[in-house]
Give the backbone structure.
Amino acid sequence: MYGPWTPAGEFDWSSYENLVRTVLLSGSVPATNVDTTWAIYNEPGLARELVWRTAEIATGEGEKTIAADRPLLVAGLNTNPYELDVKEIATALREQIAEIDAGLRQRGATRRVRYMPVPDRRLLAAPRKVKLRTYREIGAAVSEFTDFGMVFFELDIGIPGFGSDFTLDEIAEILAETPAIQEYKSALISRKAAFHCLYDYCDDLRRIRVVEQVAPGRVQFSTGNDWFISLARYGARIKRHGYLLGASMMSPYRFQLWREFVKAGKPCALSLEQDLQAAAKDFWTPGNVGIYRHYLAIFLAMTRQIAHPLPHPRCEARYRVQPEDYFIPLRHALRLGLADSSDARSIVRHIIPGGADWSESEIERRVALMS
């Protein structure tokens, strides 16, 4: 859940609540405040309100569609903005959870929450024993407030000084020694020195094997590599396999359909997954995770899931899609059947910057080029 925003720079609660309901009704669990390029701009008050409002909606909608052994939402936590000693990380996270939990109680909202701490920058160069001790302490803090545990989030998206640098042995030890970990999300999408390709999912396969060896009955594995959505089928060997893929945000219902096809062993799952991959690849710009979020906002606006195709108001210019590139998400919206071709001209005029000034013939020419 990345936004959305109004032209006045205010949070668009109506659109956001529509997204949350859509995700829940499609059988997926919404995750809020876990993004690493837009959520970091949010003020603490908005971050808490996002969790509380999502929990309120999930209390009614999610209990009808989400199995009882799954959380109804995943809530992100972040200690990176604060000046802390490494020994204070777990305490700071506990304080954040306590404040969230108090708000949930006041609102009578669900407490079926799984917490997802973003890796703290102070652990990047920390010794192995410090990393293990810190995660044990975080796990103990999380266990005070929820039975749905926490996400062990391994992050490397190419942002200098931000992320994690765990070895496979450290990952195995942390998973084994922190019972509160119920999910392991690997978001390794920067260049890997050990491989010749720019992006490779071999690292994900290695980490799947760690989960299989250490805690297959407790920990589910998720990958942040959208264009390797087919990796989920490999994960069928894991008893608890999760999907936290940006591609699912394009259309929760298309993603639900893909899951059903995979479960039923239908070959048509392959064509649908390739369609989702094609959009994810076009939205992704190497070294620029943030621009992917803006592409999604444009796509969701074009498919009438949110009202405005805007990035976070504090988002840097390099994370914003240029007007000439708005046709990329429009092409995929039409191709996936999420927007009707008869609406293409209206979408151009109302959503693409400068589109209102284009002649009818110019719009027709551009739409024709897309096909």
